[in-house]
Structure formats: C-alpha cells, structure tokens
Amino acid sequence: MAEIERESMDYDVVIVGAGPAGLSAAIRLKQLDESLEVVVLEKGSEVGAHILSGAVLDPCGLDALIPDWKEKGAPLNTPVTEDNFYMLGEAGQLRIPNMLMPPLMNNHGNYIVSMGNVCRWMAEQAEGMGVEIFPGMACSELIYDENGALKGVVAGEFGKEADGSQGPAYEPGMVLNGKYVFLAEGVRGSLSKMAIENYDLDAKSDVQKYGLGMKEIWEIDPEKHKPGTVTHTMGWPLGSNAGGGSFIYHLENNQVYVGFVVHLNYENPHVFPYMEFQRFKHHPMVAELLKGGKRVAYGARAISEGGWQSIPQVAFPGGALLGCSAGLVNVPRIKGNHNAMLSGKAAAEAAYEAIQEGRSGDTLEAYETALRTGPIAKDLKPVRNVKPLWSKRGLLASLTVGGFDMWTNNLTGLSVLGTMKHGKTDAESTRMAKVFEPIDYPKPDGVLSFDRLTNVSFAMTNHEESQPPHLQVKDQSTAVLDNFNKFGGPSARYCPAGVYEYVQEEGAGCRFVVNFQNCVHCKTCDIKEPGGNITWAVPQGGDGPNYPNM
User: Fold this and answer.
1) 3-class secondary structure per residue, 151-219
2) Secondary structure of residue 431 in the 3-state scheme
C-alpha cells in the first residue's frame, strides 16, 4: 500500500485534548509568551462534548492558573454548603460524623460544577489569548523523529470504509508537529497508551487501577432542592460484590447530579455495574429525593484510581502526559480536575523554559520534578494507601485503617503503612463465572431506573456507521469461546452503554456482536475485558457522546 501523503503544520506546542489539563497548559503557555504557537486538538464535536465528571471542583488549580476567574465569569456558581457521608443498608442509612473524616475530605471552599461548562469557559479564555482550538479532530497516530522523539500527531482522518479501506470521500488528515507534544486525552487515552508502551513509561510504577463512573442529571421538586449540598454514600447495593459508592450533588436550577462509581477490580463477572447504579436509586433516601423528578441526561466514563504509586513517568522525549492521562485522581476525595489543571500549568512552564533555551524534542525533566515534588504530590501521597486497602481488605479496612493512615499523613506527613501495592490489573482480577452465583437484578421501572439503551439516548451519542469500528476485538474466538464460556461474557454487563452482546443463534452457536454506535467513550472494555481482548481507539472526529453540561 502506498504511503499516505499528508499536509503538515508546525507549532511550538501541540496539545491533544481540550479538557482541564490541556486547556490549562494552553492558557499558561500564552500567559508566559503570547507569541508561542499553541494548538489544542479535541476529538469531541465541541469543547465539553466528551467531558464527564462529578464534579465538586477544588478551585486551587484555577486559582493558580487564573487568579481572577470570578471576575472573568468562570461558571463556578454553586459553592458547597453542606457535606454528608452515609453508609447505606438496603432499607436505611447511617450518617458518618464529619468530625471523623480527615480534613482533606472537607468540601467547604469547593464548588459544584459542570466540568463541561468549565472547559467551555476555559476554551474561550484560551482562544482570546490566541490559542488555536480545533474540535472534531480525533488524533489517531503518533509521529516520531529520526531519534525516536515524539514530534507530532495525525489528526482529522475521515472517510474510511468499514473494512479500513479509503472511501470516496477519504480525507487523510494532517500532521501537526510541535517542539513538544502534550497528551491530555483523559483516562486510558489511546495515544497515551501508545506512548507509555513505546517509551516503557510504566516500568517503575505500579499497575493502574480504574473505576467506572456513571452519572445522571435529574431535575427535582424545588422543595427538595438544596443548592450546595454534597452527599457521598458507601455500602448498599454493592455489598461484598464490588467496591464503590455514590455521589449526589445539588447544583443550580433545581438540578442534582446523581452518580455511581464501581471499582473495576471486582472478581465476580456476573456483576452488572449499570444495574447496580439503577438499583441504588431505589434506596428510600434516594428514591424520596428523586420522586416527582425527571432524568435529563446520562453518561459514563472510566476513572483512574491507582493514585500516587501508579503514576508512570510523565515526561519523555518530545512529549508529556497530563491530567488523567497520567492518573492524577485523588480517590477518597473523588477529585482530579484540580490536579489536571496543575499538571497542565507545570508542563507548560517546563516547555516554555525549554523553548526559551532553544531546546525541542528532549525530555522535560522539570515537569517530572514539579509533578513529583509540588502540590500534586502533596495531594496524592497522603491518600495512596486507601485504594489498595479497599481492594485487598474491603470497605471496613478502607474506612478504619485507611482513615487512620490519612490522619497520620495529615498530622505528621508520614504513613505507618509505607506505600502499599495494588497487585493485579482489573482485567486479571476477574475470576471464572462458575465460582459465583448469578446476580438477579430487578427490572428497571422506567420511573427511577431505566434500561441501558433508553439511558444511552440521553447521552446523545452518535457514530458514523460506515467507518471502521473503533472498538477493536483482537480475536473473535477468544471473545466467544474463552470470555463467554469461562467468564460468562462479562462485556455484556460491564459496558454501561450496551455495546456488547452475545447472541445465541440456532444451529450456529454463540455470536459476539459489537454495537459500536452506542459507545459513550468510557473505555471500560479496554480496561476490564479478560485477556485484554478489546482495544478502544478513536473514531472519526466529532463522533461519540454530546454531553451538554456534564
């Protein structure tokens, strides 16, 4: 096959991803030198279209980047006024006193936000400073120079047929070269995976761990609405089947964010995370809040949960990993956006200094140092043992021993536990289906709980059907024979969008069906599938969910 000829454009810094990390980097670069040529490439149809987060935002990242964000109209409109922590049982709840929680768990001073809208506002600030932002431009390849350094990306390839051949409207895309390339794709980014593998960036870090976060926006009865109220729960309905918990955040306009997180290291392949979320809403406390309301949006995404010990090397020849591409989420706080912003700022400052010195294509050691010694380290190191404790010893140990460890870190800066290891990947954690009894989930009632396909319509996701599937199954026989016969076909349950089906056909056995059009880009399949048999890659630019204010 003849090599594809592509036009190219040169910049000082190329940034992949218009999330909080990428936009923070772009803004900081322009603050330091307005003459720098900076481009941000976003796969969503618009900035914010693929952004989904809780979100209670710690404004420390924004304070450091744009100190006058209030005067500039940043959409942080709902300060937290009340913090609640509950342990749920099937019929009731027990409130955990706030005084028992380490100070880092306190949300006062934080804001309930739509990160999609925060990113839209940040994009306006960046464009006002001269940053070029191109939405609908999925980046599908990394480009290296003759010395093996990352020098650019391929963006905007369109018009391939389902079999991968070039269709009549084929557009080869462009190569965008930079003195440095920042990968800020969010969790489990496809280019970030390539870079981590190519440069062996995770050679000295622990395995990364993940959770699946699902979220609905509800409009509720105004009499029940309490703007600024933040509620987190643990316990029912997950029990011993999986780790995780919920969040309920009251924002403005009589709306609440209702979310549910399931840790993806669960062993029982019969676990159905989406149905656990739907069942949760039938708890008396939650059902009473939502009674008379209506769900107006739905979405899902994976969450990096490995924390401090799972952060790979973030700087490499010609490039850097930012935000969730590096895994900077504080698990007990359920927050990562502030660290994403701080990482973008730090990477920008390192690149600026390098460019001022006439450098390009080298490793930004200053960024690596800043991340591992600065405010991100101070946020993540004290909580590094909460996740492995939860994974290995369960919820009670996480609350008691993990809570004690956070307190000692807070008071002395030291951990009595050192740094615990995570052990297996989430895919390796899945055990044989025959070891467990199937789980009988209640049928959704269409009022509080909904079937997956109905809910996916509220994500407004869309993919051009004639393109090659962006969900790549390495071996169909493995998907059917191994993962169905041994593990009960877990992809039919772990996917929160109903992408995967095992269809029994008379006389032909079982067939594995991939409905990639339903995909909401959560990337759970890339994480949880036994044997790593499914790879998530970018579809055509602009395809995927279209979240309005997630």
Assistant:
1) EEEEECCEEECCCCCEEEEEECCEEEEEEEEEECCCCCCHHHHHHHHHHCCCCCCCCCCEEEEEEEEEE
2) coil
Contacts of 110 (CB under 8 A, 6+ apart): 56, 57, 58, 59, 79, 80
In single-letter form, the type of residue at position 46 comes to E
Q: Which two tokens stand for residue 29?
A: 């670069």
Residue 410 has pLDDT above 80, yes or no: no
pLDDT of residue 482: 85
CA dist 284 and 44 (Å) reads: 37
Closest CA to 142 of 203, 207, 189, 202: 189
The pLDDT of 446-456, averaged and rounded, is 97
458, 219 Cβ separation under 8 angstroms: no
What's the mean per-residue pLDDT of the chain? Answer: 94
What number is the average pLDDT over the span 346-370? 98
Tokens standing for 64?
Answer: 């450091």
Among the listed residues 64, 47, 65, the one whose alpha carbon sits nearest the alpha carbon of residue 115? 47
Q: Is 516 left (phi over 0), alpha (psi -120 to 50) or beta?
A: alpha
Q: Is 91 exposed, middle or buried (0-12, 13-18, 19+ CB in 10 A)?
A: exposed
Measured CA to CA, the distance from residue 171 to residue 321 in angstroms comes to 28
Half-sphere CA count of 392, side-chain side, radius 13 A: 13
Q: Cβ of 400: how many Cβ atoms within 10 Å? A: 12
All structural domains of the chain, each given as residue ranges with its CATH number in brackets, are 8-70+116-158+171-205+312-381 (3.50.50.60), 78-112+208-304 (3.30.9.90), 385-418 (no CATH)
Distance separating alpha carbons of residues 433 and 38, to the nearest angstrom: 50
What distances in angstroms separate CA 103 from CA 2, 87, 108, 411, one per listed residue?
Answer: 60, 19, 10, 10
Can you give the pTM of this predicted structure? 0.95
Select from 105, 141, 106, 135 the least CA-distant residue to 120.
135
Q: Of the candidates 288, 322, 328, which has an alpha carbon nearest to the alpha carbon of residue 306?
A: 328
Q: Which residues pair with 15 in a beta bridge?
A: 40, 182
Judged against a pLDDT cut of 80, whether residue 112 lies above it is answered with yes
For residue 174, give every residue at least 6 positions away whose Cβ sits within 8 Å of its Cβ, in sequence order, or none.
6, 7, 8, 9, 154, 155, 156
> Residue 340: CA atoms inside 13 Å, Cβ hemisphere, count?
29
Rounded average pLDDT over 218-239: 96
3-class SS shares of the chain: helix, strand, coil, % to 5: 30, 25, 45
Residue 501 CB neighbours (<10 A): 14
Query: Does the pLDDT of residue 479 top 70, yes or no?
Result: yes
pLDDT digits (tens, 9 = 90+) for 71-109: 999 999 999 999 999 999 999 999 988 877 777 778 999
Task: Measure the CA–CA gap between 27 and 34, rounded to whole angstroms.
Answer: 10
3 state DSSP class of 406: helix
**Nearest alpha-carbon partner for 496 in 356, 359, 300:** 300
